Amino acid sequence: MGRIVLEKVVKRFGEAEVIPPLDLTIEDGEFTVFVGPSGCGKSTLLRLIAGLEDTTDGRIVIDGKDATGLPPAKRGLAMVFQSYALYPHMSVRKNIAFPMKMAGMDQAEQDRRIAKAAGALNLTDYLDRKPGQLSGGQRQRVAIGRAIVREPSAFLFDEPLSNLDAALRVGMRMEISELHKKLATTMVYVTHDQVEAMTMADKIVVLRAGHVEQVGSPLELYRTPRNTFVASFIGSPKMNLIEGPEAAKHDAHTIGIRPEHIDVSSESGLWSGVVGVAEHLGSDTFFHIHETGLAETITVRADGEVSLTHGDKIYLTPRPDVIHRFSADGLRMKDELAVA
Amino acid sequence: MARAVTTQRKAINTALAWAIGLLIFFPILWTILTSFKTEATAIADPPVFFFFDWTLENYGVVMERSNYGKFLWNSIAIAGGSTLLGVIIAVPAAWSMAFVPGRRTKDILLWMLSTKMLPAVGVLYPIYLLFIKLGILDSKIGLIIVLMLINLPIIVWMLYTYFREIPGEILEAARMDGAGLKEEIIHVLTPMALPGIASTVLLNLILAWNEAFWTLNLTAAEAAPLTAFIASYSSPEGLFFAKLSAASTMAIAPILILGWFSQKQLVRGLTFGAVK
Amino acid sequence: MATQHSRSAARLMMAPAVVLLLGWMLVPLTMTLYFSFKKYLPLRGGDLGWVGFENYVRFVTSSAFWPSIQTTLVLVGGVLIITTVLGILLALLLDQPMWGQGPVRILVIAPFFVMPTVSALVWKNFFMDANYGLFSYLWEFFGAEPIQWLSQASMPSLVLIVSWQWLPFATLILLTAIQSLDSEQLEAAEMDGAPALKRFWFIILPHLSRAISVVILIQTIFLLGIFAEIFVTTGGAFGTKTLTYLIYQRVLESQNIGLGSAGGVYAIILANIVAIFLMRIVGKNLDN
C-alpha cells in the first residue's frame, strides 16, 4: 500500500517560501511524475515526502498514517538519487544489503532478496564488484536494487536518469516503466525532462515556483493545458504562442498552436513566412519560420520529405480544432466551437 | 602540455632541476653524512664527502649520554597525543559543518582558522602562568593540550574539506536505508573519509613534532621533546659536529619519511584550501 | 538543508571544538590585556598596581623597539622576496617535463620537514661556523677571508636559514597552482603568437596571483612568529631581535610582564591585520 497525501504542505527556507501551501494526493500503485523547470521546488517536494527535509507546516500522510514528523527510515519509502549515492567502499552485494542490515533482517532472507533483485536487474555477475568498477547504467540498477529489496510502500526517484547518456536514458526509462508494471508499487519520480514525464507517468504534476500548475494524465496535459506555462512546457517542440490581432480573431489574448498542428505548403495557406532553419530528421522536418508577422519564430513540424530550405517562402495553415485560447492572465479559455 | 618535447630540452630540464634539488637538499645530506664520520673527519680540512671510514659510533654515544630515548618518547607522546585528541574533537565538528551547514557555519570556520593566527608570544605569559597554577608546566599532558589547541583549527579545516567531497546524497541514502546518526558515521562516513583522516593525522603529526615555540618555553627536564633536545646542543662547549649530526638525523628522520608521504596534504592543510 | 533533528545533533557535535577554541582564545587574551595595564614584576615585588597605558608607551619608546621592528621587517620582507621569486622559478622548472620529477620534488620539499631547531643548528655549525663551517672552506678556497657569519652578517644569515626552510612551502603551493592551469589556455596563447616570456607574464603570472598572495600571507603569519631559529643561532644578539623575540625577552628573561604583555597586544594587532586579508581570500574560496 502506498497512498501518499500532502495536506497544506509548506516549506520555507528562512524567509524564502519554496513550497506555498500545497495539496496533493498520490494514489496507491500510481506512477506520478513531478516535472518543472529547475528551481521549481520539485526536488524539495520529494525530499519532504522522503523526510530528508522538515515540513514547515501541513501534514504528510503515508498509508493513512501521519508521517510528518517521522525520520526518513521510518516512513517505509525507498529513494533512488540523482548521483545514485552508492556506498563506494562496499561491494554491490553489500550496497544492496545495507538497508536490510540496518533493519536487522536475518541473513538467509537477505541473501534471498539480493539474489532475486540481482536476477531481475541483471546484476548477478557484478555482485562482488565495487561501484567504481561499474558503468553508469549498472550503477543505476544497483541503486534501484537497493531500493527494491526493502519492499517499500513507495519508490522515490530524484532525476535518476540525468547522469546517463542519451541512448542509455531511453533504455533505463523503459526498464523503470517495466519495473513499475511488474511491482505495481507507487512511484514518485522527479524530472525536468518533459519527455520522461510524458512517456512514464500515469499522472503528471507540473510545478512552477512551488505551485502546482496542473495535475493530470500526460494526454490531458497535452490536450488541455490549463495555462500558457503548461502549454509551452509539455510537448516538444514547444507550442507556438501568438498574441495580437491573430489572437483577437479568436477572442483571446493569446492563442497556442502546436508545431504538429500546422500544415505547410509552398504555394498557399493562411499565414506565410520565410524559412530560417530547417532541421531534417528524416522522419520529420522541423521548420523555424520568421517574418510571419505573428511571433518572432513559428516552429512547425512537417513531414520528413518536405524539401524547403533556408530562405524559402513557406505557407502555413493551422488546424482550427486544436487551437488553444488563453486569456490575458495566461489561463486557458473555454474551447471555442469551430471558427469559420 | 600533451606534446612531445625534444630529448635535448628534457635533458637540460633534468640536469638543472637535479642540480637545484641537490643544492637545496645538501644541508640535510651533509648532516646525515657527517653523522657517520668520526669527530676528526667531521672537521677535516678540506672537507671529505663520501670517502671516509663510516662509523656508527656517534649514534651510540648520543643514545647513551643524552637520554635520547626519553626525548624521543616525549616527542612521540606529545605529537601523537595532541593529534589523536585533536582528531577525536574535530571529526564531529567537521561532520556538522560539512553536512549540516547553517548560516553561521562559514563564520565559525573562519573564526576557528583565525585563532590559528594568534601570535604565540602574545599569550606566552598567561599560558605560562596558567601552567604553573595548574601544575602542568614541563608535563606532557600540558603540551598535548596546547599543541592540540593550536592545531585544532587545521584539523577541523582539513577534515571539513575532505568531508565536503563526500556527496551529501550518500549520507541521505544511508538515512533512507534506516541508518541512525551513529551507523551513518561508522558504516558510511568514516570508511569513505579514511584517506582524508589519515592525511590529516599525518600532517598534524609533522606540525606537532616540529613545533618549537611552546615546546621550548613550556618544558624543562621532564617533558622536553626532540626540539628541545637539539636546542640544548647549541651551547658551544658541548658541541661536537659528528654527534650533533647524529642527534639531528635521529630527530628529523622519522618526520622526513612521513613528510614525503604527505606532500599533497601539506598544500591543502596549510593554505586552508585557498590553493587547489 | 537538513532536518531539525540533524541540526540539533550538529550543534551538539560542534560544541566541544567551539568551546575549547573560544577558551583558548579568550582566557589568555583577557589575561594579556589585563597584565598590559599593570606594573607586574613577579621577581621584583609582583603586582605593583594599575598603570594605565604606561606599558604601551614605554614599549614603543624603549630603545629596543624600533630596531626590533626594523629587524622584523628585514626578516619577513627578505624571506618573502626570496621564497616567492625563487619559488615561482622553481615551480616553473619542476613543472617542465624531465626524468625523475618525483625524486627531485622530494629533494626540494625536504627542508620543510626539518624541525626549526635542527635547521638552525645545522646552518649555524656546519655552514656558518667561522672555523669549521663549509662556507669558511669555500671562502678560503677562493682566497677570501672567512666571515663570522652570525655576528658580522647576522641578518643575511638568518634570512638565508629561514628562506631555506620556507622555500619548499612556497614552491609546493605555486607548483600546485601552476599544475591547475588549463594547458589549453597556454596552447591558445601559443596559437595567438605569444612567445614564452609573454605567456608567463600575461597568463601564468595572473593565474598564480592568488596562490602568490596566499603564500605571502601565510608565510607572513608564520614568519612574524619566528622564534626557535633566533633562539638557537644568536639568542637575539647582533641585531637579530625581532618583535617576537623582544617580547619573549621582556616576559620570560627580564620578567617584566606588564611591558611584555603590552608588546604582546601590539603583536596580536599586527598579526590580525595580516589575518584579515588572508581570511578574506579563504572566505571567498569557501563560497564556491
UniProtKB/TrEMBL annotation, chain A:
This is Multiple sugar transport system ATP-binding protein. InterPro entries: AAA+_ATPase, ABC_transporter-like_ATP-bd, ABC_transporter-like_CS, ABC_transpr_MalK-like, ABC_transpr_MalK/UgpC-like, Mo/tungstate-bd_C_term_dom, NA-bd_OB-fold, P-loop_NTPase. One of its GO terms (cellular component) is ATP-binding cassette (ABC) transporter complex, substrate-binding subunit-containing. It comes from Sagittula marina. Belongs to the ABC transporter superfamily. Keywords: ATP-binding, Hydrolase, Nucleotide-binding, Sugar transport, Transport. SMART domains: AAA. It comes from the Bacteria.
TrEMBL record, chain B:
The chain crosses the membrane at residues 12-33, 71-96, 108-129, 141-163, 184-209, 240-261. It is a multi-pass membrane protein. The keyword Lipid metabolism does not apply. Pfam families: BPD_transp_1 (PF00528). It comes from the Bacteria. Keywords: Cell membrane, Membrane, Transmembrane, Transmembrane helix, Transport. SUPFAM superfamilies: MetI-like. InterPro entries: BP-dep_ABC_trans_perm, MetI-like, MetI-like_sf. Residues 72-262 form the ABC transmembrane type-1 domain. One of its GO terms (biological process) is transmembrane transport. One of its GO terms (cellular component) is plasma membrane. It is found in: Cell membrane. Belongs to the binding-protein-dependent transport system permease family. PANTHER family: INNER MEMBRANE ABC TRANSPORTER PERMEASE PROTEIN YCJP, MALTOSE TRANSPORT SYSTEM PERMEASE-RELATED. This is Sorbitol/mannitol transport system permease protein. It comes from Sagittula marina. The lineage of its organism: Bacteria, Pseudomonadati, Pseudomonadota, Alphaproteobacteria, Rhodobacterales.
